[in-house]
Design goal:
Low-confidence stretches: none
Shape: globular
Strand order of the largest sheet: 1-2-3-4
Helix content: under 10%
Structural class: mainly beta
Radius of gyration: 17 Å
Number of helices: 1
Distance between the termini: 47 Å
Order of helices and strands: EEEEEEEEEEEEEEEEEEH
């Protein structure tokens, strides 16, 4: 019933509040079922969201490599991180390289991948991001992070990379580089 200010960029089912969040280029909206089932602006402060994910009851909104990301525990109040490397284009929740705990992964264009156990502010218990692993060269951006058969895979426009438990990166599809040229 409520018009969004722009086309949706991404949606997130936020289980901490049992409602949908929708990011547009200008705002983050909540689909509040208890208030006549309408989209309601959750915040006007957070703009330019590229991706959202929920990790340990906290929603994270990535804003790219030039603006630090935000997080929220209620979908309404959003706080910008103050961690050293608080820039992200995409998030993903998956086991750490050793497979011993679930962590929050982030990619930062063009080719950085790192993880943390808590991406909030330092005062809220945030833990600094790991040193980045570099996926391929800088000529192509990371497009996705996903898990297949317990392998953390990172997709780029010119290859698919496997990030192993020792921190090694392995190209899987070098033929994409040849096909691309």
């Amino acid at each position: 019933d409520t018009d969004l200010d722009a086309a949706p960029v991404c949606f997130l089912w936020f289980s901490a509040t049992s409602e949908w969040l929708c990011a547009t280029s200008g705002k983050i909206y909540r689909y509040n079922v208890s208030s006549n089932s309408k989209w309601t602006a959750a915040t006007t402060t957070v703009a330019g969201v590229l991706h959202m994910v929920e990790y340990n009851g906290v929603a994270y909104a990535a804003l790219g490599a030039s603006t630090k990301y935000y997080y929220s525990t209620d979908g309404i109040t959003w706080t910008q991180t103050d961690l050293t490397d608080g820039y992200a284009n995409r998030f993903f929740v998956s086991p750490n390289p050793a497979g011993t705990a679930t962590v929050l992964w982030k990619s930062k264009n063009p080719n950085e991948l790192s993880n943390t156990t808590n991406g909030k502010t330092a005062a809220a218990g945030g833990v600094q991001w790991s040193s980045p692993a570099y996926m391929g060269d800088t000529s192509n951006n990371i497009t996705n992070i996903f898990l297949v058969n317990d392998e953390l895979l990172v997709g780029k426009t010119d290859n698919l990379f496997y990030y192993d438990s020792e921190g090694g990166t392995h190209p899987y599809m070098d033929d994409l580089k040849v096909a691309r040229t």
